[in-house]
Amino acid sequence: MKEYKVAILGATGAVGREMMKILAERKFPVKELHLLASARSAGKYLEWQGKAIRIEEAGDAAVEGMD
Predict the structure, then answer these.
(1) Could you give the CA distance from residue 32 to residue 43 in angstroms, rounded to a whole number?
(2) How far apart are CA 13 and CA 30, in angstroms?
(3) Whether pTM exceeds 0.85
(4) Ranges under pLDDT 70 in the chain
(5) How far apart are CA 56 and CA 67, in angstroms?
(6) Per-residue DSSP letter, 62
(7) CA 56 to CA 37: how far, in whole Å?
């Protein structure tokens, strides 16, 4: 099964957190998960499937290479 590089824009907000929840519930084949948010949130961490994922600042470069 193919796995995908996924980026969630606005990961710290209600919609972003819901997307993280849905990806996990539906066992979506995620190879890499990138959490994007404002500069204010960049550098903080959110947990997803038992892993701490660092939040990245949203921008054009952050979505390059994503599926």
Answers:
(1) 17
(2) 20
(3) yes
(4) none
(5) 17
(6) G
(7) 6
